[in-house]
Amino acid sequence: MKHIHTFESFLNEADTKDPKLVKGVDITVEMDDEDGDFVAGDYRVTGLTRGGVMLDGMGKRNLQVTFGALSDAGYTVNESAGHEIIFSVDDDKLDNMLNSRFSSQLDYQDIKGDSFYSLPKRDFDRFIDMADSAGFDVDYENSEDSVVFVQESAITESAVNEGVSSEAVYINVITGSGQQAIQDFIDENGIDVKKLVDYAKEVKGTADQYKLRDMISGTGLGSNEKMRNNFIKKMQ
Asked: Which residues contact 149 (CB under 8 A, 6 or more apart)?
C-alpha cells in the first residue's frame, strides 16, 4: 500500500514524530519499505520535512521518507555517534578541506605529545569519500602513498578497552557493525579472522561493505538465513 496521506493525517504525523529524529542523528531501519522506496540499513538524518525526514545512507542521498513509512518499517535511533577514528592529514590543501567541511564534528586527541584529529566513523567515511573524489590518495591501511594516517595505536587501545580483538575493531572501521557484534559473530560461528579481514579489505569502499555488515548483524540481506549461512561457511 502506498503511503498516501490526507492533510489531517499529515498534521497528526507531524505532531507525533519521534523527538529524537533530529538532524545529524544516526538511525537503523529494521525492514525494507513495502513500496521499495528504501531498504533496511543504517542512515543519517540530514534534515526534516513537513511530515517526514531526509536521509543519507545505503547508497541514497537526501532520501525523503514520511514518518509513517519509517514507523511501518521500524527503526532505532543510535544514541552514540559510534567508533571514533583518530588520524592525521599530511596535505595542506586536504587539511583545509577537512577543517572547512567538518569543523563542527572535528575533535582533537593528544597521543604521546602528538596532536591528532578525531572524527566519528561515519563522518570519517564521508571525509575519505570527499578526499578520494578530489583526487587525493587516501585509505584506512596507512599505505606509503596515503596522505591520511589512521592512528593504529588508538585502534589497538580501543580493542583492549572493549575486550575485543584488533581485527574486530578494524572490521568495524570499515563496516560500522559494532566491535562487540563483530567479535560475537567471529566467536559464535568459528570464523577464520584472516579470511574475514581480507574480505573486509576487498569490499571496503564498495556497496558490498554494506552486505558484509548485514551478514555480520543478521539484518537486511543477512536476514536471509540461507544466504548468511553460506557466507559463514565461506569465512570458516
From this structure: 87, 88, 89, 90, 142
Q: Which residue's entry shows cell 521499495?
A: 36
Fold observed for domain 7-78: SH3 type barrels. (2.30.30)
Q: What global pTM score does this model have?
A: 0.39
Q: Is 42:28 a contact under the CB 8 Å cutoff?
A: yes
Q: Where are the alpha helices (DSSP H) in the chain?
A: 7-15, 67-73, 92-101, 121-133, 152-162, 166-175, 179-189, 193-203, 208-217, 225-235
Q: What is the pLDDT of residues 34-73, one digit of tens each?
A: 888 888 888 888 777 777 888 888 777 788 888 888 888 8
Three-class secondary structure of residue 15 per DSSP? helix
Q: Which of 24, 2, 133 is nearest to 72 (CA)?
A: 2
Q: Among residues 129, 94, 124, which one has the least CA distance to residue 106?
A: 124
Model pLDDT for residues 203-228, shown as the tens digit of each residue: 877 878 888 988 998 888 888 999 99
Domain ranges of the chain: 7-78, 83-139, 151-236
Q: What is the pLDDT of residues 17-37, one digit of tens each?
A: 666 777 667 788 888 888 888
